[in-house]
């Protein structure tokens, strides 16, 4: 079995992008800050659910992140 060397690089790059976006949304005014952070969580959950390809625990994690993101956008402040 050949190791996939691109996967750790993409994971590290994704973490850097995620932390940068989270820091940038922290500078927004309050109604937009919660909505933007919730949207980021929802997008992360949706992408994890789509990327999982049959790995049930990642799909469950993606669904939980999606639900939390939507709750943060519409309910939690």
Task: Describe this entry's structure for a reader.
The chain is an all-alpha fold. Helices cover 79% and strands 0% of the residues. The protein has three helices and no strands. The chain is flat. The N and C termini lie far apart (48 Å).
Helices and strands in order, then pairings?
Layout: H1 6-25, H2 30-51, H3 56-74
Helix pairs in contact: 2-3
**Biggest sheet: strands, sense, closure?**
none
Strand content: under 5%
What is the assembly state of the chains in this entry? single chain
Question: What structural class do helix, strand and pairing data support?
Answer: mainly alpha
**Alpha-carbon distance between the two ends:** 48 Å
Shape: flat
Helix content: over 70%
Rg calc = 14 Å
The SSE string, one letter per element, is HHH
Number of strands: 0
Nearest-integer average pLDDT: 87
| Count of helix runs | 3
The poorly predicted ranges are: none
